[in-house]
Specification:
The chain has 262 residues and is α/β, with parallel strands linked by helices. The chain folds into two domains: 5-146, Rossmann fold (3-Layer(aba) Sandwich); 151-257. The protein is built from eleven helices and seven strands. A seven-stranded mixed β-sheet has the order 2-1-3-4-5-6-7, sandwiched between helices. Helix 6 packs across helix 8 (189-203) and helix 6 packs across helix 9 (206-214). It binds NADP nicotinamide-adenine-dinucleotide phosphate. Residues 9-10, 12-16, 34-36, 54-57, 59-60, 63, 80-82, 104, 107-108, 208 line the site of NADP nicotinamide-adenine-dinucleotide phosphate (NAP).
Length: 262
């Protein structure tokens, strides 16, 4: 069978490099480009059956606009962006190719892929979908299909709410001026877990996490709920209404886990 040729724009680093490794292992011929590579976007479009956009979120739209018109309807145009609504819409508008939005829900450092989630948003054509789904599943990933709209709504929880919460806690810790090694002496296992998450986010390049929050179209809706909840809890604590605070927490516990906390 003819070897599939895949071109990854943004394949020199991060998720693009991770995907290049996976595809090579599966027998594909892989070409990558970044801003300083010899091969560029035009070369990849000319050489490849499949083009993957894996550049930072803020330049994704521009790259799709550049590469989309260079592809034929037999090709596949896909992306690895952490948001799906805007990239999928742009891939459909700016190319005739088959289009699949793809979001691996993990970072490029992860060694064991088994059981990790990948969301696919198939948007045009059927020819390439089986190939992509098959190679992800072969590598023990759990593959789910979604619409771009539902995906971004879910990411407002998994990324916006989650990372906003981590960033704000890290900022409060910095504001206390208490050194981390001092905090460590007083840490519980629960607190250590949180400190590890904060450290990962703040030291591994907070730029991606900031983009995940600011670029999500559902971010403000989610953060309004978060702000309202904090104000509400704070109000109950301030007013000394311990019973009401307890009732609110119990109600949420019941809704989430179907049981009342003792
Ligand atoms: N990191 C994660 O945990 C993660 C998880 C899932 C999805 N994603 C998604 O994956 C995408 C890439 O994120 P990442 O974290 O992998 O980023 P990254 O590590 O910063 O890598 C970005 C890649 O894009 C290239 N690049 C940057 N600007 C470019 C431009 N104008 N033209 C061509 N290439 C360019 C870079 O190459 P040069 O620097 O060599 O130019 C590099 O190869 C994003 O859409 C992100 O949402 C990331």
């Amino acid at each position: 069978m003819k070897k599939i040729k895949v071109g990854i724009i943004g394949g020199t680093n991060g998720m693009g490099r991770w995907f290049a490794g996976l595809l090579k292992k599966e027998g594909c011929t892989v070409y990558v480009c970044g801003r300083k590579t010899e091969l560029g976007i035009i070369d990849l479009a000319r050489l490849c059956d499949v083009i993957v956009v894996a550049v930072p979120i803020t330049v994704t739209a521009d790259i799709i606009r550049q590469v989309g018109p260079l592809l034929t309807k037999d090709a596949l145009l896909m992306d690895l962006t952490s948001l799906k609504k805007e990239p999928v819409k742009l891939m459909l508008t700016h190319s005739k190719a088959e289009v699949i939005g793809c979001h691996p829900l993990f970072g490029p450092q992860l060694k064991d892929l088994s059981g990790q989630n990948v969301i696919l948003c198939p948007a045009r054509g059927e020819k390439w979908l089986g190939w992509l789904r098959g190679l992800l599943k072969k590598n023990k990933l759990d593959v789910w299909e979604s619409t771009p709209d539902k995906h971004d709504k879910m990411m407002a929880i998994v990324q916006v709410l989650n990372h906003f919460n981590t960033i704000s806690m890290g900022m409060v810790l910095a504001d206390t001026n208490i050194p981390l090694d001092e905090m460590d002496k007083y840490s519980t296992p629960f607190f250590r877990t949180k400190l590890d998450i904060i450290k990962k986010l703040f030291t591994e390049g907070p730029e991606l996490y900031v983009d995940l929050i600011t670029e999500n179209p559902e971010a403000n809706r989610m953060l309004d709920i978060y702000e309202k909840t904090i104000k509400d809890i704070r109000g109950k604590i301030k007013s000394g209404n311990k019973a009401k605070f307890k009732r609110t927490v119990t109600k949420a516990a019941q809704k989430l886990y179907g049981r009342e906390n003792k």
